[in-house]
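Lab manual, section 2.4: Encoding a predicted structure.

Procedure: take the sequence of the chain (269 residues), apply the prediction step described in section 2.3, and record the output as structure tokens. A sample record is shown.
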Amino acid sequence: MKRLGKKILGKIKRHSGIFISLKRQNKQLKKFKNLHQGQDCIILGAGPSLNEIPHDFLSKMTVIGTNLSFKYHKPDYWVVIDAQYSWMNEGRELCRDNNIPAFINWLWAPQIPETFYPNEISLHPYQITTDQSPDNKQLRTNLTKTFNNPVQIEKRGFTSVNSVVPEGAIPLALYMGFKRIFLAGVDFYIPTDGTFHFMEDTKEDEDKIDKLRSRLKKDDKSNKDLFDIKRWPIELIGESKNSHRIFNLSEKSTVKNIPKINYRDVDFS
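Recorded output:
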């Protein structure tokens, strides 16, 4: 009887913790709802093609940086899914010192900080999965719903926590009301030489990436590489009603279903 009572109490605590986390996120989120209605934004990934986008082009619109892209260009907003890397504190301090809203998922962080900065919003994910394949019907349904109706993140949190651009930054940009969303440095390709990112990764981070690739390949039960597994959610955007609002500036990108455009051809008139 005692064991059953503890089990029930544990479930209550877990669910109440999720509810409190979601309630806190939603209170912070709502001030951003349709804040940029009808404007343009650019979401920065960390792929090598980011080096090809000039800073004066980035300055023409709102910049939503993801992960370590802040090292290339200071963002107006920062979204982080992988909070376990060496650049994390540097990014947090940059956002704190410049009062940049930072949306962070702490699930994968090795240690949740004791103190959160006033500018930080903790992302609450409602589905945790490493299966990013088209066979995952639940993830497909949830992602498509999010792309079509981003307001649902107020009720259920962000869809998942594996791919920062499609599952974090794009739903957030849609929620903020941006009319056009451009992607830069969103490459999803495996280089034959060089690095996965626009800058050289530290040995520590390379090891973490390798471990993540091994874990996802094992959990996904396929021969797909990390970038094959993680790019599929972004390709679902092509099936959503908001697909016409999103454009990829990376010629190197292996992402399908997102129209490509050269940054020189973007019309701001």
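Check your result against the sample. The domain at 2-265 is CATH 3.90.1480 (sialyltransferase cstii, chain A).
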